[in-house]
## 1
Amino acid sequence: MILVVPIGDVDTRTVEAVSRFVGSYYSRLGLPARVSDPIPAEWFSDAYNPSRNQFIGRVFLETLGGIKAKTGARAVLGITSLDLYEKGLNFIFGLAHPGMGAAIISTFRLRPEFYGEETTGNLLIERAVKEAMHELGHIFGLGHCPNRWCVMHFSNSILDTDVKGPYYCTSCELKLKKNWG
Ligand SMILES: [Zn+2]
Ligand SMILES: [Zn+2]
């Protein structure tokens, strides 16, 4: 099972849509997805860096890894609206730790309004689905892919996210299935 964990105040429609999408993909590999009860953002006050007004991603992974161990999920994917960063990077859309079976994505820089775009339509959901599939790919052993239409392509900016599709390319999917066996 893939457990999708909402963290703090995060858009429910997005969380449900991400769970539905990754569930429909991964259930073909025997892994359905479900959404857990939300966990409070206050659990991650240690991750806050006041000089950047951002949260360091790795702190979330430890807690999510603990939830994985407790629930027996195969993978845990956190979704937060907090702005995340990692050392050496101005920001991150998401982060995964394959060893812990845990990943997190942030909707902060996926929101159309962050870029002055119109908020109508499903742009936030489409972007969140791509970042979720990307981080889950890392959990299941995939690296970054040179194919810019593959969901495992690295997103330097939201433009990269918008160019790529929500699926693994043929080569990444083959690797994924091999890792499975
Ligand atoms: Zn990546
Ligand atoms: Zn690929």
Note: The radius of gyration is 15 Å.
## 2
Amino acid sequence: VYMVLAYRINLDSRSELERLAKITTDIPISFRITPGVASGHSEKVMTGGKGSKFGIPMNQVIDTYARAKDLGFDVKGIHAHTGSGGMTTDPFTDVVDVLCEMVNRIEEEVNIKLEFLDFGGGIGVPYRPHDPEADLNELAILITDTIQEETDIKTVALEPGRFIVCDSTVLLTKCVDIKEAGMKKFVGVDAGFNTLIRPAMYDSYHYVAVANKFNKAGVAKYEVVGPICESGDYIAHDRALPEMEEGDIVAVYCGGAYGFSMSSNYNSRPRCAEVLVNNGEAELIREREDFEDLWRHQIVPARLSK
Ligand SMILES: Cc1ncc(COP(=O)(O)O)c(C=O)c1O
């Protein structure tokens, strides 16, 4: 059963198109293209550049829309996603230029009048205290002006993820170890890259403060590191913090995007609990995992459990 009115399928390749056609052509579709515009806080999350694994390469877009039409699909739109967490508006205006040009070419060359244009997600957020916020009003004006001037498109979609949820979440992690080694002072906390992988994976900055010492000034620079067995396991580097002691609670800000969802059980560590704070009241919304959860899906072959 296909809920034709409520759903459409956004296809990323010719092979997906052919595979879907074997199942049904009775569903609206759109295509993700590779616009040749990349953005992001790290190269690892830039998705729209030429040669990327994502989307239909520019030189195949017209043929792909034509093939979809021949197969009998109702092709409704065009989509691109340049990447995640870039802090400038240029990639959005650039990608909208590319999408508008393709909307017109698809109408002229394939005779398909598209209904919507989706320019993806990727709006960056301030992670550092003095980072500026993205000027969304300016962005909205630039984009809608271009779309109205260049095309007949009336429906514009965007897919912001990080922008909506990033600053909603603070990771609280306990100091379990204090160590001085050479010139460095280490604060060992009980959350590592199993809980928040962004620093280890992208060298991302997350602002940290000591939740039980908010009113105390920083007295020394610390490395805030996790319990994972790799030297790349860190939360914050070279941060001025008050005198640290075991039991202190380190608050790691902006953990709402790509935080819990990228967490893992690496080093056999159960995942953390999640608590919703609503009008000063704390509500548990996800239980802390326990050791049972680590082997819940494991199967011991009968021959080994005799
Ligand atoms: C296709 C697509 N759209 C939207 C997003 C959301 O990106 P962001 O959280 O940067 O807004 C992603 C993230 O990976 C994505 O792959």
Note: The radius of gyration is 24 Å.
